[in-house]
Amino acid sequence: MKYNLLSYLLLVLVFTGCKNNEGTVKDNYLDFSKRDDQFTGGIKMIPITTSAGKFKVWTKTVGQNPTIKVLLLHGGPGLTHELYESFDGYFPNESIEYIYYDQLGSYYSDQPDDNRLWTNERFVEEVEQVRIALGLDNTNFYLMGQSWGGILAMEYALKYQKNLKGLIISNMMASASDYNQYAENVLGPQLPKTVYDQIKAFEKNKDYTNPKYTELLFKYYYTEHILRKPLEEWPESINRCFKHINPKVYVYMQGPSEFGITGDATLKDWNVKPRLKTISVPTLTIGAKYDTMDPRHMEWISKEVQNGRFLFCPNGSHLSQYDDQKTYFSGVIRFLKDVDSGRFKRNN
């Protein structure tokens, strides 16, 4: 009887302590009073050292949680943190700290005109410098990358996974060649033949700036595979993100075509498939039915890494955080909390 009472009291103490800890995080989530970025509302211009000189990149921290801090790597290359602004509707309620971040060359950061800077290796070192400046480590640091950001997240993990607590690869395959084949053999032929033929004719002639080419892409391709809503219903944050793109960085690394990474783009031969098995940190991969990326490939990545989990968005496309929002955020939040609590298990 005495043993049972003691056990009961210990259980009460444990559960009460957990509850109080969670309550403290939630109570202090928006308390900036002891932070060095209170004056700017969480914004920091972080100095970055490169072989081409010193620059500054823009970050903004939302909330505070000592054990869950998510650094967001945007797509492009050359887009902005603005594509993540829907996170404001979900992460704060879960007391998840997250950091918006414009990579070098992107709108809110310095934009040097020097192609020597646009390499995977240089971007990885930039992320590492941002991590150090923000005081992130393997007790709290989650790295989340979407599209090009997913490439960067994989590359970072392959070099610096010792610094990570968790990794999220959203809507990105592990091979440019596989992505090209999916775009060419699966997505392109799904378009009306007359439309696809026109698009291919523009690309054959390298007439990428033709207004008709852009019109066809937005009307028939983007609304099916980038964000599945009529253009007039696209969120203002996404329109703003596209408006702020740095086309020089984008074309140099990704190329001018939306049907794969082609031409002289520096990413056209990128492939980390053989190295994925070395990633041991808990990893979530996200794929969507209508994505520009093959969701089956995303599921394969989750099985190839040592501790992977796959999230499928049945109604989503490339920006599933908007067109399959409930599925997307419930899966991401569950992953973060499972890893944080020690309950993470791979689902394959």
Automatic annotation (TrEMBL):
<dbReference type="GO" id="GO:0016020">
    <property type="term" value="C:membrane"/>
</dbReference>
<protein>
    <submittedName>
        <fullName>Alpha/beta fold hydrolase</fullName>
    </submittedName>
</protein>
<dbReference type="InterPro" id="IPR000073">
    <property type="entry name" value="AB_hydrolase_1"/>
</dbReference>
<dbReference type="GO" id="GO:0008233">
    <property type="term" value="F:peptidase activity"/>
</dbReference>
<dbReference type="InterPro" id="IPR005945">
    <property type="entry name" value="Pro_imino_pep"/>
</dbReference>
<dbReference type="InterPro" id="IPR002410">
    <property type="entry name" value="Peptidase_S33"/>
</dbReference>
<dbReference type="InterPro" id="IPR029058">
    <property type="entry name" value="AB_hydrolase_fold"/>
</dbReference>
<comment type="similarity">
    <text>Belongs to the peptidase S33 family.</text>
</comment>
<feature type="active site" description="Nucleophile">
    <location>
        <position position="147"/>
    </location>
</feature>
<feature type="active site">
    <location>
        <position position="291"/>
    </location>
</feature>
<dbReference type="Pfam" id="PF00561">
    <property type="entry name" value="Abhydrolase_1"/>
</dbReference>
<dbReference type="InterPro" id="IPR050266">
    <property type="entry name" value="AB_hydrolase_sf"/>
</dbReference>
<feature type="domain" description="AB hydrolase-1">
    <location>
        <begin position="70"/>
        <end position="324"/>
    </location>
</feature>
<keyword id="KW-0378">Hydrolase</keyword>
<feature type="active site" description="Proton donor">
    <location>
        <position position="318"/>
    </location>
</feature>
<dbReference type="GO" id="GO:0006508">
    <property type="term" value="P:proteolysis"/>
</dbReference>
